Amino acid sequence: MNLFTVSGSPHVHEDRSVRNLMLGVVLAMVPAILVSVYFFGLGAIRVILISVAACLLFEYLIQKYVMKTGPTINDGSAIVTGVLLAFNVPSNLPIWILIIGAFVSIGIAKMSFGGIGKNVFNPALVGRVFLLISFPVQMTSWPKPQPITAGFVTDTVTGPTPLGILKEGLDAGKTVSQIEPELPSYVEALIGNHGGSLGEMSAIALVLGAIYMLARRIISWHIPTAYLGSVLIFSGIFWMIDPTHYVDPLFHLVTGGLMLGVFYMATDYTSTPMSAKGMLVFGAGAGLLTMIIRFWGAYPEGVSFAILIMNAFTPLINRAFKPKRFGEDVKNG
Amino acid sequence: MNLKTFKIGGVHPEENKLSADKEIEVFPVPKKVYIPISQNLGAPSKPVVNKKDQVKAGQLIAKGEAFISANVHSSVAGTVSKIDKVIDQSGYKRDTIIIDVDGDEWDESIDRSEEINRDITHLEPDSIIKKLGEKGIVGLGGATFPSHVKLMVPEGKTAETLIINGVECEPYLTADHRLMMEKGEEMLIGVSILMKGLKVDKAYIGIESNKPDAIAHISNLAQKFKGIEVYGLKVKYPQGAEKQLIKALTGREVPSGKLPIEVGCVVNNVGTAFSVYEAVQKNKPLMERVVTVTGKELPKPSNFLVRIGTPVSELVEKAGGLPESTGKVVSGGPMMGKALTSLEVPVIKGTSGILVFPARVSKRVPMQHCIRCGKCVTACPMGLEPYLLSQLAQKERYEGAEDERIMDCMECGSCHFTCPSGRPLLDYIRLGKNKVGQMIRNRGK
Ligand code: SF4
Ligand code: SF4
């Protein structure tokens, strides 16, 4: 006699696992990886590979020897953290600093909370901010992009990021139009030909990956839309009031880590809200904080801090912004 | 075409309507039938036959006496061999009338002619309700709520619209689809009868757009009927859930904890409408129904017109036999159906399909930590937070679960279906609902 499996409904399952989703994110980051390799050559490959390897290793070791639970490195989330951490550092970062960053990301920000699903903050961002505070010099000397096509160059020239140029200029009392000649053009910014962290270079490459993630429903549109909208509105208002001291909103969109943050880090599953409403609030808040830091903060760039601060608010947002229940407060005409 | 749909949540499982083109085949009368006396929502009925009694097909064999209960009729002619406890689809032993078949003589009062009886002018609401009660008609969409009770609108409420469910949003199932294609006019007469019974002058029929042939066919036929409108609906699960269907077709939202009549709607399924036609116009009780027997590895996925009480094993045999690979058999659809422990259980009024799954997809996907991705929240058509409900239920925090409206869960399974971590969300939620339901009942005492 046949013995049948008996289990509660449903009896079918969507063909999509955590690993599947995570590998989808990695795939979405491939264009940005290629751009970084194009501009920074072997340095970029080195940073990405070491970061991913270190993240996987730390997760494996902590899982095996400290937490003593089943391995979770197969789920691909450590790979995502590894690539994101690499994306958030300069391509010439000394290896030992990078490894410390990986340890902070995985060991402290992720595993000490209990691993995937339990962490409050985005692991890669915690790693990045830790490095930024601990190694400010190494973390802010960005090599100038040197396209592979320009031949093999050994002496690395470093230069500031567009946002850095802007901030420095404004702090020195210059107006936006006086600083403008030093800034990259929009085309250059979109392609990624400017100073900056490894993966934040090319807005186009990042958006390409984002479209893929949206199409496959790996991420939902809520957080990115609210985030970008809030950056646009906030920077737009100030630009309209005082264009001599505030640069136009488009510049803010394509520079710095905004695209990277908006599509790849503010959309992290675990550290962001669950409901559509909550996600919109999260995105809007992150956009606002980003601009506040960019305008008036000590750092030229505010994406990482903004997202981390909103991460901290996530449990509160989850409680305050429940999904719209069916059949609640109904007005039937 | 402008497709209507509901707004919150929903998922899109693979449709797999393997038997969509298979005409309904009349299934041979079995040698023995097993007719449980409790097949519907509500109180069990009382047997009115004894061992060794001779019965004809269509003869009353168990009477529904409570307000919410339904009559049960013999589906065959023969001798009552036993009234005994037999395992039914629920896996529990239930009182069952077992009949040894002998010939196929039907009760004389049943009109067996093929002719369509279109005349409904003489019908009155009361006589319709009485007839449906007498003939044991229950909802065939799965919930098996007695149809005559549905027509009795509670005092203080008024019915405005009859909603007819031709959605068949469960993957694999095609019984309603085939019925609409082959018995469309009879079904529409049934709809008109239900409209009369409810004293309403409009009815909306909703059909998912993956059945364009049925939409075209029924729209065409409906032109001859007054007040019946047909709408194509977006393919999205659970489009056929009562509250979601009402939302899609009328824009109205049934308030939490309330019945459709709150917004002036009564919902019936197309299969039920057809049985209503047969009961009222042909005097035929609910003694057979269309059952889809299907599965990717089943040799011949089919739609059968089956006598109630026929063993499921015979259906599977006729559809080519149980494949070697089988690991699970489900009664109903893959999203809400029930896994069977054995094939030796009878078809009942609520059996819409028998699904055969190969062993490799029978087991659940391995469970991992909740990654808090929120996909279950996005998927829930009731706007609930399944991850939270399942956590609360698991931790036995039932008050919390009640506050988070666990009782609004309709057990559609969308959350479990979509969870990338393979968490058995609905298992815990069901458990929680049970406990919270008990809590609420105790409070009332
Ligand atoms: S089973 Fe319940 S909680 Fe899960 S999606 Fe359906 S209604 Fe929502
Ligand atoms: S879908 Fe699964 S993993 Fe995602 S939040 Fe819901 S329960 Fe958690």
N-C termini distance of chain B: 52 Å
Helix/strand structural class of chain A:
mainly alpha
The fold-level CATH name of the largest domain in chain B is: Rossmann fold
The H-level CATH homologous superfamily of the largest domain in chain B, spelled out, is NADH-ubiquinone oxidoreductase 51kDa subunit
What is the CA–CA distance across the termini of chain A? Answer: 57 Å
Helix content of chain B: 25-40%
Oligomer: heterodimer
- Quickly give the structural class of chain B: alpha/beta
Main beta sheet of chain A, described?
2 strands, antiparallel
The helix/strand series of chain B, from N terminus to C terminus, equals EEEEEEEEHHEHHEHEHEHEEHEEEHHHHH
- Trace the largest sheet of chain B across and list its strands: 1-14-13-17-15-16
Low-pLDDT stretches of chain B: none
Overall outline of chain A: globular
> Helix tally of chain A?
16
State mean pLDDT of chain A (0 to 100 scale): 87
* Rg estimate of chain A, integer Å: 21 Å
Feature tags:
heterodimer, A: 333 residues, mainly alpha, 2 domains, 16 helices, 2 strands, 1% strand, B: 445 residues, alpha/beta, OB fold (Dihydrolipoamide Acetyltransferase, E2P), Rossmann fold, 4 domains, 6-stranded mixed beta sheet, 4-stranded antiparallel beta sheet, 13 helices, 28% helix, binds iron/sulfur cluster
